[in-house]
Amino acid sequence: MNHEKWDDDKIEELLSNVPKIHDHRSKDDVFKRLQDEGVFEEELVPMKQKKKINWLPFIISVAAILVLAIVGTSFTKQMNQESLDSTAQEAKEISNDASRIMDTGMEEESMGLMVAEMTNLSTAVYPDELEDKTVFQLGLASDAADSVPVTVLIPNERIQQDFGNTNPTGVALYNQYAENFNESAIGFREYHPFVGNISEQGNQVIHTLPSNQPYDTASASSATYTASLFDTFHYYYDEVLLRNEDGSIFEFSEAGEPSKPIPLKAKGQFNYFKHTQADGSEYLTPNFRAAYETVEEALMAMKEETNDIYKTVILPEVEYKISTTENIVVVTFTKQLDLMNYDQGDAMQMIEGILLTASGFNKQVLFNNIAQIEWQGFNFADPLPMPVAPNEIPYETVFQ
Fold it and tell me: How far apart are CA 340 and CA 110, in angstroms?
């Protein structure tokens, strides 16, 4: 049968089309026909004593009942089948939709995790990256009136072209490359090279400033300047000495006295927070150069946000304990930390923020109670290598 919808009018129409039964024979003819077919047994009660039975209405009634039963059964079966088919189809579609949604969600999550694993999210520089490369650092003027330390690994082929077979000092590198560093390519304002003359004497950097120097116009300018000097030269030198062109010691107007050498290897060391530039780019950087005497203090203070500019890199609701040996800091998470439960970039910033903080104290870090043994190239079963410097920028990005 087809799947047309049935209603009362349809049923009445069907019944009205059932052929009407007419019998024009006499009763005697009918009786004689039944008698000839052996319906009645003559040895029983004599015929005259038998009650005559009118079979025709009975037969017609039975036929009508059979027609109705057949039609009703077919109708009911069709309606039930249609209902079941419809329900089954809807359930199948819902199941398929749910499966597609679940599969899509799982596929997207799996794909995201696979992409994150295939993508190197590390931004720090490590010792195994230094082969055939030279470290070049700059402190860039940030949106926060401070400095953001960045690192470029210059291929030694370029170094040899510019310096021959001589190993350049930090000052020589600065004077050669700072002017060509494209700061705007990574969203910073042009700040380098420093105004005046940069030279060196032993473990000192000497910055000779002209009378029209721009670094003493306000406290914000001087803060950016001194922080930038630190980020640019601390990898190679112990301190920076500021001089006037006549050889005298430079004096900041607000201080009212000759400046003291800026220490680049101070006893206190920094911890690392996240700073976001106006263009959305994120960097790991010290929190306004707040210094700590011990690695334990520095690492525990990483949980505390003291301003709106530098944000903690410690993941939400993550707690840890610190213990130290001579060369290693042991960071033990109080609850097992599954790094895959977090944004992978955020997880990397926490791991590298801790590594960079500990490296300032010349210590490696051993992480305990992380679900993953290997993640993003790190093997948490062993102490991780000390990073050399933060915020690596690809050479091709800033040197065209």
Answer: 11
Block mean pLDDT (10 aa), the chain, length 400: 51 54 53 61 41 46 48 45 51 53 52 59 97 97 91 97 94 97 95 97 96 85 93 95 95 82 84 95 94 96 94 97 95 98 98 97 97 98 97 94
Structure tokens at 69: 């039963």
Q: Are 240 and 233 in contact (CB under 8 A)?
A: yes
Residue 333 phi, psi dihedral angles, 5° rounding: -80, 135
Residues near 57 by beta carbon (within 8 Å), at least 6 away in sequence = none
Torsion, Cα of 135, 224, 242, 238 (10° steps): -40
Residues 6+ apart with CB under 8 A from 100: none
Q: What are phi and psi of 148, to 5 degrees?
A: -110, 120
Instruction: Output the CA angle 248-240-129, nearest 5 degrees.
Output: 155
Residue 139 sits at φ, ψ, to 5 deg, of -100, 110
In angstroms, the CA 246 to CA 40 distance is: 150
Q: Provide the 3-class DSSP secondary structure of residue 378.
A: strand
Structure tokens at 279: 């263009």
Using alpha carbons, select from 245, 294, 248, 252 the residue that is nearest to residue 271.
Answer: 294
- Directed axis angle between helix 27-36 and helix 55-118, to 10°? 70
- CB atoms under 10 Å from CB of 201, counted, come to 10
d(CA 329, CA 322): 7
Q: Are 242 and 248 in contact (CB under 8 A)?
A: no
Q: In angstroms, rounded to a whole number, what is the distance separating the alpha carbons of residues 31 and 53? A: 9
* pTM of full prediction above 0.90: no
Helices 170-177 and 219-233: angle between axes, nearest 10 degrees: 120
